[in-house]
Design a protein that fits this description.
Number of strands: 5
Order of helices and strands: HEEEEE
Number of helices: 1
Largest sheet: 5 strands, mixed, barrel
Strand content: over 45%
Structural class: mainly beta
Shape: globular
Strand order of the largest sheet: 1-2-3-5-4
């Protein structure tokens, strides 16, 4: 029997493809964690009306820099805790 395993080469594109979302910070009470509300607009299947769906996501904020009302960009990452697997990439707009 000849052993010739088919080795898969993982490219940087495969490894670095991560989901990114934009949303607003709704809570910064936790240490190094913020809650980001992400809005998704979907069209109703039958009636065609555009519906706004919101999801609250816990994201890692290493420097505790984000405040409530900030518009941020978040990116998917490895699980950091039981509910946290997103991280803050950048703050797009500060709260007024």
């Amino acid at each position: 029997m000849s052993e010739n395993p088919q080795e898969k080469t993982v490219t940087d594109d495969d490894r670095n493809y991560r989901k990114t979302r934009q949303g607003y910070v709704v809570s910064d009470k936790m240490d190094k964690t913020v809650v980001v509300e992400v809005e998704d607009r979907v069209k109703h299947a039958l009636y065609g009306k555009v519906i706004r769906r919101t999801t609250k996501i816990k994201a890692h904020d290493e420097t505790n820099d984000c405040g409530v009302g900030d518009r941020v960009q978040i990116m998917e990452t490895r699980p950091l805790s039981a509910h946290k697997h997103w991280r803050i990439v950048q703050i797009l707009e500060r709260a007024k």
